[in-house]
Amino acid sequence: MRYTLFGRTGLRVSELSLGTMTFGVESGPTADLDTCRRLLHAYTELGGNFLDTANIYTGGASERIVGELLNGRRDEFVLATKYTGATREGDVNSAGNHRKSLRQSVEASLRRLRTDHVDILWVHARDSLTPVEEVMRGLDDVVRSGKVLYLGVSDWPAWEIAQANTLAELRHWTTFAGSQLRYNLLDRTAERELLPQARAFDQAVLVWGPLGGGVLTGKYRRGEGGRLTGPNGAAPREPRQEAVVTEVLDIAEQGGWSPAQVALAWLRAQPGNVIPILGATKESQLADNLAALRVTLGEEATQRLDEVSAQPLGFPHDFLREPGVTQVVYGDRWPAIEDRRSTPHGAPRSMRRDGAPT
């Protein structure tokens, strides 16, 4: 396990994060505390230090289990939790991003986690009823109180994250150092706005659903994990999805890897500071995912996956890439222009990811 930085903070976090959303489920292998302990041990044995939970995961049981497992060794970990979701039925103010919900959620999380602070607090989702300036000022207050060290944002529109961080910078409040979003070979829509936004503000990107709900592992092809259903209960037969899974399985077989390792290796090779969140229900599954650290996809395999999983960026990105438009914007000598600048992480700019001409 190697380490990267959580945005501009200087905080060192492992290149894979352990998600604990399944800790404390009412049925299944992770209901047993010892199973959760073994999962954490397998992760930390390789040097993992970045744990992701939330106040609403399994009704608060996830935080309680994490708190028990970290008892006596809390400072060894970068501990992240979230707030936004409703925690009490019938209480209209137990949900949302307003100050009352924030304060109550943080205090309750600290009690369950058995700690006096969390390293990272994620805003779990956008609450459109609470103004952005109210959210950012409230978050800055909990950071100044010492109960939260750093901030992250999850499941927000890119334009509003940019608005929030710009507002915070201008008013000298704490900014979002990380962005958490869904991103995988089946769903690359984050490349349209969310990933460019994260790179522009030098945010770490925590990726949830890196295996597409298990679809990219090929288990549904093998008849495992039940029947894959769509919104209306019907098994989807989306050609693009089928093609992506087929390519992942083929590359995995050729390389001697598991499909999950191929999907995770592709994610880890993307521009920017991308950190997949691993969610496991048994030790063998987590071990397989962690083995992705040893997988490096070749240029040919990467190109195959890029092509089969490509999704249109939409307007205005596609429009700005049209040859006639490119010449109008950059002039008739645009092919002679070489952009030698780098992203904040040192990776060359790429037209495929951020729309810059090559």
UniProtKB/TrEMBL annotation:
Gene3D superfamilies (alphabetical): NADP-dependent oxidoreductase domain
UniProt keywords, alphabetically: Oxidoreductase
SUPFAM superfamilies on file: NAD(P)-linked oxidoreductase
Residues in NADP-dependent oxidoreductase domain copies: 15-309
InterPro entries the UniProt entry points to: AKR_Detox_Biosynth (IPR050523), NAD(P)_OxRdtase_dom_sf (IPR036812), NADP_OxRdtase_dom (IPR023210)
Protein name, UniProt field: Aldo/keto reductase
Presence of keyword Iron-sulfur: no
PANTHER family given in the database record: NAD(P)-LINKED OXIDOREDUCTASE SUPERFAMILY PROTEIN, NADH-SPECIFIC METHYLGLYOXAL REDUCTASE-RELATED
Pfam families in UniProt: Aldo_ket_red
Organism listed in the record: Streptomyces oceani
GO MF term set: oxidoreductase activity
